[in-house]
């Protein structure tokens, strides 16, 4: 038989062979409970079969089956029901022996007091509610555990694929091939690695690839920018703190090193740390333990440390701004990441990958980058490296009309193929080859082509900007061999 839904009020079954006792208990309990009554064990079992009973309040002395005997049956068939016995006898051996056998929650003596009885039964009802809630949560956890495990494993797999060394965009002949091969070797060795290179060259991407290709891949990868916080906050962030260690420390805090226990800790911009903090960091690397701010003793941690910096740490050591012993602790192996200008063959692939990533995030589709756009991108020196390249891709997307991107949407400095907007024309002339006439013609051809690109090859607008007639512009296009197809 399918049990009914539980009532809004907790249901209690009063079992007593005396009608007056039943009625007295009903009047006392009916405001806080849904009261059911029975005069003997047979009636009580029938009620339990059809109702959702949380508490069974039973008199001990009844004709036929005693209260303790009845509650033994209740325990076997409805173990979630709270069992309470009432008796006027304090020395009954049946009661004393049956308390454990029947799992009796409370033993009440007659005559009972209404206030005491209500308090006992409300406590019993709350315990029954908590027990039912715990059972429900346990069931949900058992049901959800396999799903959660699959979700966690799927996320881990996605992270491994996303940050795999093979996922790092690079062209044939790129210096990144040698760097990725080195990182592949280092991933199998649990040693500190120092990543150096300009900001935006992909040091964090390499650090993640190193982590997800290592035996620590299933554990945490934690990043902290050491140059973003003052010493006290950085110490608390990395090492943790105890409650009351300083103003605002209202509770204990686990530091990032402890969060990375078993995994990898990336200390970004480590060259920005102060001499005082470098001493504390050195102890962590030497001893394999951290001391939370305000703690009496250190705690052990097992985190692989990868450091990254855009500074020349060797020069910083010689200048006395970085501790030599810490440098050698961090730089078991140094990996230097080249800037984007030293690997121009990667620029088209990275730009297209950034476009594909943005398309997926925005839910829009664009045509592949044109040769005209690629020429401009490759010619620029990219002082901001990949971050600057990403901004250019986003700029083109923001200014695009429809699904087509145009070189005219690039920043002026990039559109001028690597020549800064404020750079005097004389500097450009100095870099050109040939006699004066040849140099001036080359410069004129560049200016005409730039104007055409900026106006998306609208000859009328380009001629107006250059102060030429359409016939004059057409003549120069023919003279210099300029055509959109070229």
From TrEMBL:
It comes from Azoarcus indigens. SUPFAM superfamilies: CheY-like, Homeodomain-like, P-loop containing nucleoside triphosphate hydrolases. The keyword Transcription regulation applies. The keyword DNA-binding applies. The modification 4-aspartylphosphate is found at residue 59. GO terms for molecular function: ATP binding; sequence-specific DNA binding. InterPro entries: AAA+_ATPase, AAA_lid_NorR, CheY-like_superfamily, Homeodomain-like_sf, HTH_Fis, P-loop_NTPase, Sig_transdc_resp-reg_receiver, Sigma_54_int. Coiled coil: none annotated. One of its GO terms (biological process) is regulation of DNA-templated transcription. Pfam families: AAA_lid_14, HTH_8, Response_reg, Sigma54_activat. Residues 11-125 form the Response regulatory domain. SMART domains: AAA, REC. This is Two-component system response regulator HupR/HoxA. Gene3D superfamilies: 1.10.8.60, 3.40.50.2300, Homeodomain-like, P-loop containing nucleotide triphosphate hydrolases. Keywords: ATP-binding, DNA-binding, Nucleotide-binding, Phosphoprotein, Transcription, Transcription regulation. Residues 169-398 form the Sigma-54 factor interaction domain.
């Amino acid at each position: 038989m399918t049990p009914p839904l539980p009532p809004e009020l907790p249901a209690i079954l009063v079992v007593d062979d005396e009608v007056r006792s039943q009625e007295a208990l009903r009047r006392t309990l009916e405001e806080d409970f849904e009261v059911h009554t029975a005069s003997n064990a047979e009636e009580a079992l029938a009620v339990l079969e059809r109702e959702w009973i949380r508490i069974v309040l039973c008199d001990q002395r009844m004709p036929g089956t005693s209260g303790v005997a009845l509650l033994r049956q209740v325990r076997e068939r409805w173990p979630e029901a709270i069992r309470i016995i009432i008796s006027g006898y304090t020395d009954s051996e049946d009661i004393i022996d049956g308390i454990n056998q029947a799992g009796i929650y409370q033993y009440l003596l007659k005559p009972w007091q209404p206030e005491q009885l209500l308090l006992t039964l409300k406590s019993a009802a709350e315990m029954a509610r908590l027990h039912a809630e715990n059972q429900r949560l346990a069931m949900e956890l058992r049901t959800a555990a396999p799903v959660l495990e699959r979700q966690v494993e799927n996320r881990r797999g996605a992270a491994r694929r996303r940050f795999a060394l093979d996922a790092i965009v690079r062209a044939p002949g790129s210096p990144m091939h040698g760097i990725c091969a080195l990182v592949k070797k280092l991933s199998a060795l649990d040693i500190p690695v120092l990543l150096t290179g300009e900001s935006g060259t992909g040091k964090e991407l390499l650090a993640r690839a190193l982590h997800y290709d290592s035996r620590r891949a299933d554990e945490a990868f934690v990043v902290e920018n050491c140059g973003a916080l003052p010493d006290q906050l950085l110490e608390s962030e990395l090492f943790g703190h105890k409650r009351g260690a300083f103003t605002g420390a209202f509770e204990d805090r686990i530091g990032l090193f402890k969060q990375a226990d078993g995994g990898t800790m990336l200390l970004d911009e480590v060259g920005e740390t102060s001499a005082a903090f470098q001493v504390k960091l050195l102890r962590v690397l030497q001893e394999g333990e951290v001391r939370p701010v305000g703690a009496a003793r250190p705690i052990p941690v097992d985190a692989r440390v990868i450091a990254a910096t855009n500074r020349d740490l060797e020069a910083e050591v010689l200048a006395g701004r970085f501790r030599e012993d810490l440098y050698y602790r961090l730089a078991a192996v140094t990996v230097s990441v080249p800037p984007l200008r030293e690997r121009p063959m990667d620029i088209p692939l990275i730009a297209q990958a950034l476009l594909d990533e943005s398309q997926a995030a925005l839910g829009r589709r664009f045509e592949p980058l044109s040769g005209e756009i690629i020429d401009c991108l490759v010619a620029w020196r990219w002082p901001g490296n990949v971050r600057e390249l990403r901004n250019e891709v986003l700029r083109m997307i923001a200014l695009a009309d429809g699904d087509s991107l145009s070189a005219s949407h690039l920043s002026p400095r990039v559109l001028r193929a690597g020549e800064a907007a404020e750079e005097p024309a004389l500097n450009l002339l100095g870099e050109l080859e040939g006699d004066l006439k040849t140099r001036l013609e080359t410069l004129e051809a560049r200016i005409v082509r730039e104007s055409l690109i900026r106006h998306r090859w609208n000859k009328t607008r380009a001629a107006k900007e250059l102060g030429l007639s359409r016939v004059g512009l057409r003549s120069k296009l023919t003279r210099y061999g300029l055509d959109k197809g070229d």
